Amino acid sequence: MTGSYTYQYPRPGLTVDAVIVADGRRPEVLLIKRKNDPFAGSWALPGGFVDENETLDHAAARELEEETGLSAEQGLMTQVGAFGDPGRDPRGWCVSVAYAALVPANREVQGADDADEAKQWWPLDQLPKPLAFDHKLILRTAFRHLAGNPGPSSATVTALKQAAEALEGSWQQQ
């Protein structure tokens, strides 16, 4: 059956965000500096809008590569949550599906697409303020998820848990 379907209900924009943590002696998270509004000049997670007929996994990998030059190997990133609180994006109603991954330390990144700068790995205990959108909430959720999975070093697990606690209750845009 083919045809056109319309609904009387509003639909949100759909985006993806990627939390990439370097597993090293001092764990760091990858952030990009936004080139465009909203939040131009602010630090944010790599991410963007999902294209029509694109899977969420592919969109997350595409946005990560476009904005940082990092290639997401198959199965590297896992979903950690969906975020759709009203007002999270000043452009309108947007829901973001967040992904997270641990990568080896010393990965080179480069800015591209709508990222002004993407060469910033930030220590988990020294995140810039403020972050764009609701990215503190996404980071907190991703850090908890990564800390609970097998794989990270004990130093990284400790740093992830401490960073998640530090972000507790402070996730709203400042």
Automatic annotation (TrEMBL):
Pfam families in alphabetical order: NUDIX
Record-linked InterPro entries: Nudix_hydrolase, NUDIX_hydrolase-like_dom_sf, NUDIX_hydrolase_CS, NUDIX_hydrolase_dom
UniProt entry tagged with the keyword RNA-binding: no
Superkingdom to which the source organism belongs: Eukaryota
GO terms assigned for molecular function: hydrolase activity
Keywords, ordered alphabetically: Hydrolase
Family as reported in the entry's similarity comment: Belongs to the Nudix hydrolase family.
PANTHER family noted in UniProt: ADP-RIBOSE PYROPHOSPHATASE, NUDIX HYDROLASE DOMAIN-CONTAINING PROTEIN
Name this polypeptide is given: Nudix hydrolase domain-containing protein
